[in-house]
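Suppose a colleague, Dr. K., hands you the sequence of a protein chain of 103 amino acids and asks what its three-dimensional shape might be. Before reaching for any lab equipment, you can write down a predicted structure in token form. Begin with the sequence itself:
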Amino acid sequence: MSVLNLDVSRNGGWLHRLELMSRRPANADTAPARLIDGARRGMLEDSGGFSGYEEIMDALADPSHPDHAEHSAWVADITGSDEPFHPAFLDISAVNMRLADRL
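The predicted structure, expressed as tokens, is then:
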């Protein structure tokens, strides 16, 4: 097994741990990579690092927060969904579909 620790934030501190579980020959019928398991969804694009992401999550969690509507609309635009944003939810099928499209 190979392990890659990847820092995906500009300011550091947002790490992803990727584990290569196996290798297989290239096959036109199979995606070259797929997600088997994970914990939590990835950060939102351009959310401002940890402090910005925390601020957005606080506003989303509190309908009376002055920035709730603005952040809700922004998250809906980023995610392409009006469904409530759940930072702990990881849609493995959706990730694998995106991997198949990109690789």
